[in-house]
Specification:
The complex is a heterodimer of chains A (about 260) and B (about 260). By secondary structure, chain A is of the alpha/beta class. Chain A has helices at about 55-60, 85-90, 105-110, 120-130, 150-160, 180-195, 205-210, 240-245, and strands at about 10-20, 30-40, 45, 70-75, 75-80, 90-95, 165-170, 200, 215-220, 225-230. Chain B is about 75% helix and about 0% strand. The chains are: A alpha/beta (about 260), B mainly alpha (about 260).
């Protein structure tokens, strides 16, 4: 790798995370000494078996989870020096099971904290729906009547409305059927190009990884066991497990929806 | 209150004859294989022992009529209610006894002070005949309300963790993100009381009113007390569950607006 100007959006150094021991249970270690870097506008895919800590690692990046050791930097700044609410708007999380609240699509897109001052005009809302490939007429629909794929794309539109610099995707397609999964994958890769978004995705889908390119990290039991860059014409996949994953032959079953 | 001239003093054998009712229940339990015989027997025994013990203590406190004995009694009642309020949580919340103790103490003290000081105007304030039964009713309801609220909060935090994290991810504060769950827990705690207000006196006579009438009070005096009691219990339920839920939900959040998922 000899990129001239390096401009990482995320840098995680020696992250570890263990939950405190409860009564009658030992401290559960989730992450061990994980380091990673995400270049601005690039993608990073986190793969590995269930329970390997991928989702927790993702949640450390927007500080939904607190590492017990190590540092995460966002745009060069330790995220502990940022307001977590601001960080989460700039590094938006899209979850495996789309969470929409009671009400219309419009109300869902407009959700905002008391202090926020976003522009949530109908034009912007409609444009955000168009961005994720949905009909702007959907604004008035009751959110509970949408299909799974539509719901997931509405949650992406909701994230995009807040002008994030990065999208954190937690198995965004594993609760969807293949046609809807493909639509979501296309939406994400299109947004990435049009908005120069940086993307970190926990996934079990080789399609998504192939479309996004970037770096692949293979986690097992909270440790990085292998990594590879997918850029260039003949990516060097040192580890046979990475080749197997991309060929769709690595049995990394999706996690149970939480 | 009129003189309780008509009260029939029960003798030991009359109380003993009432045990026949429990024997009927035990027979039903055996015939239907409910497996409740042991608990019924133990429960009956505890009913007898605990109530005689309380009766003796109350008789002593009433006879002495010293403020410090009344206060000690109130503290003991609050301690027992605190333990009971958190004993059935699915997963222990750190600091639960402190949280429940504070919720029950504050709500009971505030409401009791208002009722004995302003509404009923008991003089002296520590007159045990008034203070202890009133405090007992508030505590009992507050305890149930805190337990219901805690149970609902815990099950909702578990079932709706994704919803909370989705809100946090959109830039909401921890408090904002759990607000819908706090509301649901408060409603769950208060609905039985509100429903009770709708049917009070119609479906069954409230226990205190029954007791007063049995003790010879005129039904009109009894209902006036009962009205005060219903309002008092509604306030106690609301205040205790509000304090309990607010403090308890704080245990699940961090200052960095995170949900402590491992506690769920």
């Amino acid at each position: 790798m000899n990129k001239p100007a390096r401009d990482p959006i995320f840098q995680a150094e020696h992250l570890s995370l263990a939950h405190p021991a409860g009564r009658g249970q030992t401290a559960a270690a989730i992450l061990h000494d994980v380091s990673l870097e995400v270049e601005r506008g690039e993608a990073l895919a986190l793969i590995g078996p269930s329970g390997s800590g991928k989702s927790t690692l993702l949640r450390c990046l927007n500080r939904l989870a607190e590492p017990t050791g190590g540092t995460v930097r966002f745009n060069g700044r330790d995220i502990r020096s940022l307001d977590p609410r601001e960080l989460r708007r700039r590094a938006a999380l899209v979850m495996q099971t789309p969470v929409l609240f009671e009400g219309t699509v419009r109300e869902n897109l407009r959700l905002r904290s008391a202090g926020a001052d976003d522009d949530f005009s109908d034009e912007r809302l409609a444009a955000s729906l168009a961005d994720v490939g949905l009909d702007p007429a959907m604004l008035a629909r009751d959110a509970s009547t949408l299909s799974g794929g539509e719901k997931q794309r509405v949650t992406i539109a909701r994230a995009i409305l807040r002008n994030p610099e990065a999208l954190l995707l937690d198995e965004p397609t594993s609760a969807l059927d293949p046609p809807n999964a493909t639509l979501v994958i296309e939406t994400v890769s299109r947004l990435r190009e049009s908005r120069r978004l940086s993307i970190v995705a926990v996934t079990h889908q080789p399609d998504l990884v192939q479309r996004l390119g970037g770096t692949l990290l293979y986690l097992v039991k909270g440790r990085v066991e292998a990594s590879a860059s997918l850029d260039g014409s003949a990516p060097a996949l040192g580890d046979p497990r990475l080749q197997a994953f991309l060929a769709g032959e690595l049995p990394t079953a999706p996690s149970e929806p939480r | 209150m009129s003189a309780p001239a008509t009260v029939i003093d029960l003798s030991y054998w009359q109380v003993g004859v009432a045990l026949v009712l429990i024997v009927v229940v035990i027979v039903i339990s055996i015939r239907q294989s409910l497996g409740l015989e042991r608990d019924l027997a133990l429960g009956s025994l505890r009913t007898i022992v605990q109530l005689y013990a309380v009766g003796l203590i109350l008789a002593a406190v009433f006879a002495s009529a010293r403020w410090y004995w009344v206060l000690l009694m109130l503290i003991a009642m609050t301690a027992v209610a605190t333990g009971a309020a958190v004993s059935r949580l699915r997963k222990p919340i750190p600091g639960r006894h402190g949280i429940a103790g504070l919720a029950l103490t504050l709500s009971t003290a505030a409401i009791l002070a208002y009722v004995i000081g302003v509404v009923v105007q008991v003089r002296p304030w520590y007159e045990p005949q008034y203070v202890i039964p009133l405090a007992g009713m508030i505590l009992g309801n507050a305890m149930t309300a805190a337990a219901l609220a805690g149970d609902r909060l815990q099950s909702d935090l578990r079932a709706r963790a994704d919803e909370v994290e989705a809100m946090l991810s959109l830039g909401f504060s921890g408090r904002e993100a759990v607000q819908p769950l706090v509301r649901a827990a408060l409603r769950a705690a208060m609905i039985p009381t509100v429903n009770g207000m709708m049917t009070v006196g119609v479906v069954q006579l409230p226990g205190m009113m029954t007791g007063q009438i049995l003790a010879g009070s005129s039904p009109l005096v009894a209902i006036e007390y009962q009205i005060v009691v219903v309002f008092m219990l509604a306030a106690g339920t609301a205040m205790a569950s509000l304090i309990f839920v607010r403090l308890a939900v704080g245990r699940y959040l961090t200052p960095a607006h995170q949900l402590r998922r491992y506690m769920l």
